[in-house]
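Quick one, probably user error.
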């Protein structure tokens, strides 16, 4: 029987955690005692400028067996051929894009989480701390004697197939499809898988994810803070010759060897932490009268830009819910958006496209590229009897919506061979319905 993983609940809270094997490991009343309990080293991990206002200030103090600086020099490695921040590999393409499910490597090719990283699209530059990258991970093997961190951005991980055991410096998180994990800039982690595994990653270079403001919704609703879970301290005291720390730095991978596990944090405290969230806890708000609300009502997390109300990227879901609007075309409307919309499917199907948009696949509707329901969906929804209906049951589609204009990589456009060249056809049968009669 599996033991339930312990977690601390809350979003953006000041947490503290001590591995029960070493009571008293967390210094009391100060961060840097002259000598830390148990001979631990104190190390601060800063997630914001020291001088950031209190509301934005993020840091944690880690009490560890060895400080992170004990490692050999970083050397460039080329183990993830399709991980890139080069947005100029291919000509820009404003077309609607859709991808069939990305292939997971076959069992005879052992690929771990880092080797399995493939960048689909993105914009901006981590050197300027502005932009985002959207990757998929396609793997079948657990990371061994290695840990990964991104020097470029925060990683929001959305598993689609396969459970993940994520060992972090702060403790262990287990996530399954329909849960997400956020590992923030600089946090080291290792991913263990149970078999063929696939998922999506949103990496934001600007800053950190927040819960959206609720405005007139009030104090409760959407993703509630208590449902975000942070792991508890759980250290490994292991000498591991040749342990590799893999760093994604300015879009390239580097490796530094050390002879011990980096997961040696015995106690920690702070508000800069990794966390997970179960999407089934999302409290859905929607129209109970008429018309289709903008999908911003489904925002789980947002990484804001410096422009008020404009996101570098929002993480939006389309959860199971009741649809009750009267005299309304209920599916998504036809639209052109000044934001870029990357969508993925975790489970089941998506209402605006019952066919062709499949779990493990994706779509990208770039800035101002027209899109909306396919002709089959339009026809059905225009003629449906509008009774209350539970929709999206057993499904979970999501969107990474960005104010940046993203470029598709060469892998996304060509190498993956999953891009559906016939996607545009799904709208071509939309008929001209215009008539001389006011009543049609
Ligand atoms: O394009 C999409 O399918 C995503 C989407 C959904 C919705 O309900 C309204 C707008 C929108 O962009
Ligand atoms: Fe859209």
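Nope, works fine. Designed sequence:
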């Amino acid at each position: 029987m599996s033991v339930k993983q312990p977690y601390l609940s809350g979003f953006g809270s000041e947490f503290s955690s001590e591995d029960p094997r070493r009571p008293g490991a967390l210094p009391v009343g100060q961060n840097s005692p002259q000598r830390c309990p148990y001979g631990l080293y104190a190390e601060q991990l800063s997630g914001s400028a020291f001088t950031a206002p209190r509301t934005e200030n993020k840091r944690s103090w880690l009490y560890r067996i060895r400080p992170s600086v004990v490692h050999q020099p970083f050397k460039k490695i080329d183990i993830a051929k399709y991980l890139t921040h080069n947005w100029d590999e291919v000509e820009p393409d404003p077309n609607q894009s859709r991808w069939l499910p990305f292939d997971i490597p076959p069992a005879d090719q052992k690929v771990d989480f880092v080797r399995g990283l493939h960048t689909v699209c993105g914009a901006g530059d981590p050197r300027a701390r502005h932009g985002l990258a959207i990757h998929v991970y396609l793997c079948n093997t657990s990371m061994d004697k290695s840990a990964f961190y991104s020097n470029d951005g925060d990683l929001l991980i959305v598993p689609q197939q396969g459970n993940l055991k994520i060992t972090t410096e702060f403790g262990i998180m287990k996530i399954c499809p329909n849960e997400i994990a956020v590992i923030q800039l600089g946090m080291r982690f290792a991913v263990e898988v149970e078999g063929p595994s696939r998922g999506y990653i949103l990496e934001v270079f600007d800053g950190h994810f927040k819960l959206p403001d609720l405005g007139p919704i009030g104090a409760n609703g959407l993703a509630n803070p208590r449902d975000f879970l942070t792991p508890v301290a759980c250290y490994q005291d292991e000498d591991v010759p040749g342990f590799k720390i893999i760093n994604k730095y300015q879009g390239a991978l580097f490796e530094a060897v050390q002879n011990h596990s980096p997961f040696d944090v015995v106690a920690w405290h702070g508000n800069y932490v990794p966390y997970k969230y179960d999407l089934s806890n999302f409290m859905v708000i929607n129209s109970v009268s008429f018309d289709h609300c903008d999908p911003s009502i489904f925002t789980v997390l947002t990484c804001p830009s410096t422009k008020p109300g404009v996101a570098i990227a929002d993480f939006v879901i389309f959860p199971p819910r009741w649809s009750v609007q009267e005299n309304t075309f209920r599916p998504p409307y036809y639209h052109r958006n000044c934001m870029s919309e990357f969508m993925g499917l975790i489970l089941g199907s998506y209402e605006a496209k019952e066919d062709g948009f499949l779990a493990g696949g994706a779509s990208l509707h770039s800035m101002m590229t027209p899109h909306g329901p396919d002709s089959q969906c339009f026809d059905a929804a225009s003629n449906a009897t509008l009774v209350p209906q539970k929709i999206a049951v057993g499904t979970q589609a999501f969107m990474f919506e960005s104010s940046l204009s993203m470029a598709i990589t060469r892998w996304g456009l060509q190498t993956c061979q999953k891009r559906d060249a016939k996607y545009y056809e799904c709208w071509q049968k939309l008929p001209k319905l215009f008539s001389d009669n006011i009543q049609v």
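The mean pLDDT is 97.
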